[in-house]
Design a protein that fits this description.
14 helices, mainly alpha
């Protein structure tokens, strides 16, 4: 996968793991269990290494912190096809209005801070092709699958949300939004800033696929 996916993945992992306060207690508890499996310190070191050595990574991070990104996000947020995705997750997922969670995620992305120190062994391994592999291999896939399976068996809000994410209707809504005329310009702007939405979506669906069939 291209480098721009790596930028988005690291920002997403850090941001989503710090937004729990906006969701219900049941779902918040479940999501915290998953956040506990993420090796945030190591991934932070990996991100810092790339921030130091790769100008495209710096471009993406600085764009996310800019007013231009805020304006781009507002365009995306207002697009009818994106609103349909939010409504779907609200109505068919946990029952929680995810609008606040999504908006808080963007705020967390803007405040994202990279580590100021990086272990020597990570500094020496700085080629672009190792970044995504390092990041994904840092995630404990077997433990994530086991926890997903446990949460699905238990039912509750996470199980509802997970089933909604695995449903074909969700994928169809995402694909429709990806091809939306209203989203063409803002998504192109993201691509110009080294944030490739197609590859980010591929990563999202890959991680969802780590869980059990429902």
């Amino acid at each position: 996968m291209a480098f721009s996916t790596s930028v988005s993945l690291v920002l997403f992992i850090f941001a989503i793991s710090s937004c729990w306060s906006s969701v219900s207690a049941d779902l918040r508890s479940d999501l915290k269990d998953f956040a506990g499996l993420v090796p945030r310190r190591r991934i932070g070191f990996i991100a810092a290494r790339y921030y130091i050595f790769d100008p495209r990574f710096r471009q993406a991070v600085e764009f996310v912190r800019s007013d231009e990104f805020t304006n781009t996000w507002q365009e995306i947020r207002a697009a009818p096809d994106f609103v349909n995705i939010i409504n779907y997750l609200t109505e068919n997922g946990s029952g929680y209005d995810v609008t606040t969670l999504v908006d808080r995620l963007i705020a967390r992305l803007k405040a994202f801070q990279l580590s100021r120190t990086v272990p020597v062994e990570l500094m020496l391994r700085r080629d672009l092709t190792t970044f995504l592999r390092d990041t994904l291999q840092s995630l404990p896939r077997t433990r994530i699958y086991s926890l997903m399976a446990q949460k699905v068996r238990q039912g509750g809000e996470f199980a509802k949300l997970y089933k909604a994410l695995r449903d074909k209707d969700f994928k169809d809504l995402v694909q429709r939004a990806r091809k939306s005329a209203e989203l063409k310009a803002p998504l192109r702007r993201l691509s110009q800033k080294s944030i490739n939405v197609d590859e980010l979506l591929q990563i999202l669906f890959e991680i969802i696929s780590w869980g059990p069939q429902v």
